[in-house]
Amino acid sequence: MTTEFLVPLRVREVEPLSPLLKSFVFEAADGGPVHPAGAGAHLRLLLQNRHQRWKNAYSIVSNPHDRSHLSIIVRKVAQSRGGSAFMHTEVRTGDVLASNPPANLFPIAKTARRHVMVSGGIGVTPFLSYIRAFQSSGAPWELHHFCREDEGALFERLLAPYGGGRIHVHAGQDLSILDASLRSQALGSHLYTCGPGPMMDAVLEKAAGAGWPKGKLHSESFGGEAMGGAPFTAVLMRSGIEVEVGPETTLLDALEAAGVDAPCLCRGGACGQCETAVIEGVPEHRDHYLNEAERASNTSIMTCVSRSKTQRILLDL
Amino acid sequence: MLISGIHSRPKYAGLRVDRSGTHHIILSDTPRDIARMVEGLEPAPGPTEVWTVVGACTVTAAEERGPDGSVVRRAFRSRPLMFDMLGHRLARESMGLRLYAIGEEAFLWDVAALARSFGVDGDEIQLDHAGSERRRVFCVHCRAMTENVRTNIVACVGCGAHLTVRDHFSKRLAAFMGVQADAEVRGDLPPVEEIFR
Fold first, then answer.
1. pLDDT at B116 over 90
2. Which of A110, A142, A187 has the most B C-beta neighbours within 10 Å, making it the best mutation to test the interface with B?
3. Quick one: pLDDT band at residue B100, thresholds 50, 70, 90?
4. Domain of B145?
């Protein structure tokens, strides 16, 4: 069971950055300072309209040292579960939203002597707070941002206030542009990547090929990519109910829609909070949490991202 | 009167070339048969250097290449000279380096501390003990380091206290902890034995 601790946040400002990106600035509804949020932390907003509820996680982009507000940038995703579309169309200045306090699954490595960030698309958001932290600590850093060719100007503009020279926007370019840089980074560097799953996998693989050890590689996945799949039925042993999981919804969302209080935190397959025992059936693992052996044993499933290979899956819920 | 079962006592499992690295430096506190003591050196794992403290004023050739040119050997007159060179080198090194150190424990952990100050830690460095078991002892009362301790009880070079040499090890200080042995009753000391050979 999760204990929900929600804080009310008032929307102070909504600013469209592009047709698909909107920036939201929140302040504490009680007028006090906002919860502390380290660089890389995210907010999980509880969104609802008359028909539906969403719990969407967004990286906090504001300066971690500034407790006057928290900012996020939301991308309207074409085939989204609806949460980001709700943010784009329904949420206005003055609205009060419920949110979990900031949580951080992607913190800065404090012992790093240099920080190298590689982002793809909207995956740049956690690095905006990173850069603010590096600017106050004086730690050396550089950012390589990859995006579609037609979005190059948008990200150039978005990143311009964060310090030229250290930011490289590679619009419409291939990751191979990173090769030389990964081979020449100073000893003691840490690498962080955030963006679409296949991009992060490729970046981590390139870094490993250049001799970077696992302990200095960090990634944060966004929930949502490769979310859908074949429909299946989750049979909940303890609750004694059956939940249909459609092709466009996640197991966790389906459980929540059915009124099941399933554990969860990041909703991106990273934190392990939603790990649920599988009694029968074969999970299709899509998380970043279980190791190879745990995956192969098929005894647990991360409900936020993983699905079922079998038409029915019996869960200890 | 050693306190056993202390988890901070380092364990060593031998050195094996980590082929996920792109280049390698092996450091030894005395001349050793490195090819035999480091597993996986054949075929050459990429640029590899072997640095050895020879501890003699006869060292002249500071650098020489092996028969196939892949392994560079450097000899040093002393540890301070090696550590100076290592610091200079690490300041200019790039990611992909793997460090290996073999020797007495004080040497191993001095290498580890220097490496850590350049951000090299975890999987990027391996240590293996060889040679004497003599210890560097940190006096918890006056913070002085007493080197080359072979006995269970030692007089601290800093404050003169008779210290019990514990198994409690500090990786940060690269030393074992020494605690006054006769703190309760002055002069009440257990028999002194040579136990770190």
1. yes
2. A187
3. very high
4. 132-197
